[in-house]
Amino acid sequence: MIRTSVNWAGNARFTTVGDESVIRGKAGSITDKERTQLAKMGIGFDEAVMIADQWERAGATKGNKLFLANTQSWDDPVIRDKFRVGLVSEVNNAVITPGPAERLNFMSTPIGSLMTQFKSFAFSATHRTLISGLQQRDAKAIHGLMSMILMGYLVDVVKSPSYDKRDFVSTDRLVQAIDYSGATGILFDMNNMLEVMSGNNLGIRPMFGVDSFFKNPNLAQRTGQVGGPVASLGFDFANSLFNPESDTNDMARSVRRLIPFNNLIWWSWAVDRIQRSVGQSGDSDTED
């Protein structure tokens, strides 16, 4: 942003015609894309020139590629705050930080916050990555989406257990990479919900013949897609209690899921042993 502001101040001249500032650009002047980018952060032409002026007064620190703002040395508090707000906005767009502007009002209610838990990032990614990229319609947006999918592909390969028999290059891994990338925002989350709730009869994976996460989703898993993690935990526990086909292992697993912090690395191994011990002892009692 400093670089763009410096370009504005250093590569433009002004004349006043009818009380209107007119930019007389010369070679290398700011482009329309840079103008739009600054406008998205709430910075206009005059403010950009003032930012560049403050930067020069503070020492104009720059290297080959990095411009250092040094805002603590700026003497105009209004322009300093304007620059800092724009910088925070740009950082939040680059590293997606969910905010209230992208969330549904329902998500701020007590019930809505439980039902849509862990969905805030998906909603923010929809606005800041998917929709923003589609509006730009340039190579940078395509490169960004491809990089995100590539990183999702890498995550899928790293997370794959040793017994995973999928080919390294396959439709299954590509679909999973798009899911992990977050490039599609809430859209792929909605697809995952549809797949689980329909018992893997509808959705992208069934359409391409790819196995879903839950091959035979039970009532708790289907309910959790709408009711959120709390509903999933509650119905899973109820299913382990009242389903005649459930055994002690199911009960132990359901109880473990209700225990806070049960998967922390410092004691997850101990909880694993307790769960297996309880399940095995229950099965032995049943056989006796």
Describe the 3D structure.
- This protein has 288 residues and is mainly alpha-helical.
- It contains 13 helices and 2 strands; from the N terminus they run αββαααααααααααα.
- It has 3 domains: 2-94, no CATH class; 105-208, no CATH class; 247-288.
- Helices cover 61% and strands 4% of the residues.
- Strands 1-2 form a two-stranded antiparallel ribbon.
- Strand 1 (12-17) and strand 2 (20-25) form a beta hairpin.
- The radius of gyration is 27 Å and the shape is elongated.
- Mean pLDDT is 76; it is low at 8-28.
Largest sheet: 2 strands, antiparallel
Low-pLDDT regions: 8-28
- How many strand units? 2
How many helices? The count is 13
What is this structure's SSE topology?
Layout: H1 2-10, E1 12-17, E2 20-25, H2 32-40, H3 45-57, H4 77-94, H5 110-115, H6 120-136, H7 139-159, H8 171-181, H9 186-197, H10 204-208, H11 219-242, H12 248-258, H13 268-287
Antiparallel strand pairs: 1-2
Helix pairs in contact: 1-3, 3-4, 6-7, 7-8, 9-11, 11-12, 12-13
What key phrases describe this protein's structure?
288 residues; mainly alpha; 3 domains; two-stranded antiparallel ribbon; 61% helix; elongated
